[in-house]
Amino acid sequence: MQIVGFGVDDKTDGTGKAKISWLMRDLLTTQHRMNATATNVDGWPATEMRAWLRDTILPTIDSSIRSHIVDVNKTYYNQTDKTTKISSDNIWLASTREMSGNTLLYESSGPDYTTLFTDNASRIKKCSGTAQYYWLRTAYSSDEADFRFVYQDGHISNYSAIKANKVYGVCVGFCTD
Known about the structure:
- This protein is of the alpha+beta class.
- The chain is built from four helices and 14 strands.
- The strands form five sheets. Strands 1, 2, 4, 7 and 14 form a five-stranded antiparallel beta sheet that branches.
- The protein starts with a strand and ends with a strand.
């Protein structure tokens, strides 16, 4: 894990900012899809990925760390109604804004981690020593089928995205107090 921010993520309970925001330095050894079908309807909260992270991956984190993880507000773009919304998450994927500061039409608010992710090279994530594509939680496309991702060379998908039912890398994030 690497620290990506101090006091930048709002705690869901309204008591202020989480002390530390973390993101994996590299990828899980297990890849996963965003959804069983090519859909991004209702955005990040409706994804199979979010449930898998919460129900399967979170319990594998050592209890001494897990006991310090806090729920935070994470912005996400809902392609269905073209708005930025907020979900409460204790484990998550990064968004386009968090990884690049780019708001375009997506996640127009919320933290960004661009003091660490300053260029493409800084966004490269590997699995078993090999750079891999990995998912972001940002929904994309008018056909409601895609999510943004980071290419093997570290640049974020701009004009193309990958269908939600494809299997790609997973870079987990969480916040602690």
